[in-house]
Design brief:
Layout: H1 6-29, H2 34-45, H3 58-77, H4 81-87, H5 89-112, H6 117-125, H7 132-141, H8 148-175, H9 182-215, H10 222-240, H11 245-256, H12 262-286, H13 296-316, H14 327-333, H15 339-351, H16 356-381, H17 401-411
Helix pairs in contact: 1-2, 1-12, 2-12, 3-11, 3-12, 5-6, 5-8, 5-13, 6-8, 6-15, 7-8, 7-16, 7-17, 8-9, 8-14, 8-15, 9-10, 9-11, 10-11, 10-12, 13-14, 13-16, 15-16
């Protein structure tokens, strides 16, 4: 542990923010999402290279946990629950198969390679959730977001992110010492799902009048502050209920999605996210021990997770066998993991369910699936006259949280105007 002092903390934060921003922009310039640059910045600042960033520092860890809450709140703000039903049975089929197959494959290869039950479950769970931000952003850049395939991918990514959050809540109980029983898993799942349902039902009644009242307070930033406080409140209540804090933050975003004040809340959340979210991703990168990647066993586990991670999501594209469009395109677009997979890995490391060796293997899988998807999609669409542009060219969001949720903002353009809650477009992105 690096000795903590306030001046040292200031220096660490300066280095962290500048490095994540610089490498995030550089990643975008070469056609990759900014999160890749932020992860690499963390690796460089961590103990493997410069030794500036200690992810185990209590202050850094707390800031990173706030970053996770802000991130999931922002994703929830961009998720219209009503639109999930409109996507249809195809998206549900892709989402369910895209969770079951990767989880099963991941657990299977992990146990074959000698991992015990809990680490194997965590490794399998990290394979379940597609990165909605990366998938939507890439499809938008390639001119495919408004196609039937694009809409199916968006719906499936939202659904399997929700399933992934429920799985995360279940595994949080398991690594905390809860017995692995069907009843225990069922209770944890019911709590997680019940909390989301209760938040939506009660929120639809209580939240609109509350925010109408707050809107009348003529003070700059009031709506944004109350919105963020609401997210942290639900995160706290979710924890008290025995669920994960990110379930609460995500639920708060779902509740506020349809409020007329959403645009103001988004602006405040985006500004906050530019500070907190890169800290989370940098701390994730800093926890990667590069020396473990020279270990043959870590490399074997990482390679196996990459292989089954790609195959499981690609096969999920063929789940809606009745769909007449490009199932291969759907399968490839579902491949990238991202924020939720990294949250799984970070939780596993923090609770001791994953060693640094296994954590690095999972992080390697997340990075690999994130890096290969944009070029694979571009290769599939090349020469087909789709109007695809260069990946990352002139798109909203210049780093941090925007790159993870910008695609979800674009997703609303595929729906009728009334589904966006206010009828307004997304707020201008902070640069």
């Amino acid at each position: 542990m690096i000795e903590h002092s306030f001046p040292h903390l200031l220096g660490v934060i300066v280095a962290l923010l500048l490095a994540t921003k610089l490498l995030g922009v550089l990643a975008q310039r070469i056609g990759q999402p900014a999160v890749v640059g932020e992860l690499i910045a963390g690796v460089l600042l961590g103990g493997s290279v410069f030794g500036i960033l200690d992810p185990g520092d209590v202050v850094i860890r707390s800031l990173a946990e706030l970053g996770v809450l802000v991130l999931l709140f922002e994703i929830g703000l961009h998720t219209d629950v009503r639109s999930l039903a409109r996507v249809g049975s195809e998206a549900i089929a892709v989402a369910v198969v895209g969770v079951v197959l990767p989880f099963g494959f991941g657990y299977g290869v992990s146990t074959l390679l000698g991992l015990s039950t809990i680490p194997a479950i965590v490794a399998g769970a990290a394979l379940t959730a597609t990165s909605i931000g990366l998938s939507a952003r890439t499809l938008s850049d390639l001119g495919q977001l408004n196609t039937p395939e694009g809409q199916i991918v968006l719906g499936a990514a939202v659904i399997d992110d929700i399933i992934g959050l429920v799985i995360l809540s279940v595994i949080g109980g398991l690594v905390g010492g809860a017995a692995i029983t069907l009843a225990g898993v069922g209770i944890t799942s019911v709590i997680a799902i019940g909390f989301v349902v209760a938040a939506l039902l009660l929120g639809s009644i209580l939240v609109p009048p509350l925010f109408r009242f707050v809107e009348k307070v003529e003070a700059s930033g009031t709506l944004g502050v109350v919105g963020i406080a609401f997210a942290f409140l639900l995160a706290w209540l979710a924890s008290l209920a025995g669920s994960a804090t990110i379930i609460g933050a995500f639920s708060a975003g779902l509740v506020l999605h349809s409020t007329p004040q959403r645009a103001s809340i988004e602006r405040a959340t985006t500004a906050l996210g530019h500070f907190f979210v890169p800290i989370f991703f940098a701390s994730v990168g800093a926890a990667v021990d590069l020396q473990t990647l020279t270990d043959p066993r870590a490399l074997a586990i990482g390679a196996a997770l990459i292989l089954v991670g790609v195959l499981g999501k690609f096969a999920a594209g063929y789940a809606p066998f009745w769909f007449k469009g490009s199932k291969a395109l759907i399968g490839v677009a579902m491949i990238p993991r991202g924020e939720v997979g990294l949250i799984f890995a970070q939780m596993g490391l923090a609770t001791g369910a994953l060693t640094s060796q296994l954590y690095s293997a999972v992080a390697m899988m997340v990075l690999a699936t994130t890096l290969i998807t944009p070029p694979l999609l571009a290769l599939m669409l090349r020469g087909e006259g789709t109007g695809a542009g260069a990946v990352g060219a002139d798109r909203p969001g210049e780093g941090g949280i925007d790159d993870l949720v910008a695609g979800a903002s674009h997703a609303e353009t595929v729906l009728p105007p009334e589904t966006s809650g206010t009828g307004e477009g997304p707020p201008p992105r902070a640069s």
